[in-house]
Write a structure and sequence with these properties.
The complex is a heterodimer.
Chain A lengths: L2 H17 L11 H9 L26 H27 L7
Chain B lengths: L9 H21 L8 H16 L3 E4 L2 E3 L4 H8 L1 H18 L8 H26 L7 H27 L6 H33 L27
Antiparallel strand pairs in B: 1-2
Helix pairs in contact in B: 1-4, 1-5, 2-3, 2-4, 3-4, 3-5, 3-6, 3-7, 4-5, 5-6, 6-7
The chains are: A mainly alpha, B mainly alpha.
Chain lengths: ~100, ~230
């Protein structure tokens, strides 16, 4: 498998997971949230600061369809992570010296 | 395991912010040695994949769920320093754009998942690999064990922070027992996902797996067309 094909296949899996699979994820509280509620410090959590992002809570503001709203947010998150992470790593990499 | 704003007091959040900044600062210098033209795009993909994986909550019983943290996975695939940066980028995107994990808790979350999760996972991976047969086939199992331990390790450090700077007056031993118990179960999910993903990458492109470097590959005779070098 060429590197390009491998990377594209990996990206496709990530996009499918975030854009489509996430709809089927468990909506129960995660381990920390559950323990916080059970042991009695759950209500010390403050509402998250509004950063003005349209994707708060993995939904897309203005999109009513739940599946579409979550899917767009997931794809946007994967894209943003790839852009920021990829940009950072490409900048940090050791340049191959060419004659 | 994303800590929201409010669980920990300001001094503790500032302290974890300093730890996170120092850790990321060191990682930015050390990651250079792990990144080249071939591995840099791979590292970007790993960050994107961990973001996606963290969206997939799996049920672990009694109305609780867990999801991939990805620290051990990233460390094995692209190296621990780059792995720490991968998780930090994911946490930054989640805090800034998804309202997941508090902004004042970003340092705490980077410390727990980006540093503790990554380096405990990687240390257990390396120790396990040292006692397993020196071949590429050992890498997924060692990665899975690293992943298994990394989750309760991060949960334990959270409890330590809670003991120091928790804003609620709650018995720490109860928090510790519940955190370790649930996160050991979640760690099993982390181990399964990490083992499967690492084994898929090892099967298709073992040369792209940082943790598989220097290990014997299954020998096979390959013929290549003359004049074309396999990438």
């Amino acid at each position: 498998m060429t590197t390009r094909r491998f990377l594209l296949a990996g990206l496709l899996v990530a996009l499918l997971l975030a854009g489509f699979g996430s709809y089927y994820a468990s909506s129960h509280p995660d381990g920390l949230e559950y323990v916080a509620g059970e042991t009695g410090f759950g209500d010390t959590a403050k509402d998250p600061v509004d950063t003005g992002s349209p994707f708060a809570d993995y939904g897309t503001s203005g999109v009513d369809d739940e599946r579409l709203s979550g899917g767009i947010a997931g794809v946007a998150g994967v894209g943003l992570t790839l852009l920021i992470g990829g940009g950072l790593f490409w900048t940090l990499r050791r340049r191959e010296t060419r004659a | 395991m994303h800590v929201p704003d409010g669980f920990l007091d300001a001094p503790t959040s500032v302290a974890t912010g300093v730890v996170a900044a120092a850790g990321v600062g060191i990682a930015l210098r050390k990651a250079r040695a792990e990144l080249d033209d071939r591995t840099a795009p791979m590292a970007g993909l790993v960050a994107a994949f961990v973001f996606a994986g963290q969206m997939i909550n799996f049920p672990v019983g009694a109305g609780t769920s867990g999801h991939l943290l990805g620290g051990a996975l990233a460390a094995v695939l692209v190296g621990p320093w780059t792995g720490a940066l991968c998780i930090s980028v994911v946490l930054l995107v989640q805090a800034l754009f998804m309202a997941d994990g508090g902004l004042t808790a970003l340092g705490t979350n980077i410390t727990l998942m980006g540093l503790v999760g990554v380096f405990v996972g990687y240390a257990v991976f390396r120790l396990t690999l040292a006692v397993l047969p020196r071949k590429v086939g050992s890498v997924p199992a060692a990665a899975g064990l690293g992943a298994l331990v990394s989750v309760p390790a991060a949960a334990g450090v959270f409890t330590l922070l809670f003991a120091v700077g928790g804003t609620a007056d709650v018995a720490v031993d109860r928090v510790l027992a519940a955190m370790l118990g649930w996160h050991t179960v979640i760690g099993i999910g982390e181990a399964v996902v990490t083992g499967l993903v690492v084994s898929a990458v090892v099967a298709s492109r073992p040369d792209l797996v940082h943790g598989a470097r220097g290990l014997a590959r299954p020998t096979s005779l390959r013929t290549e067309p003359v004049g074309e070098v396999a990438a």
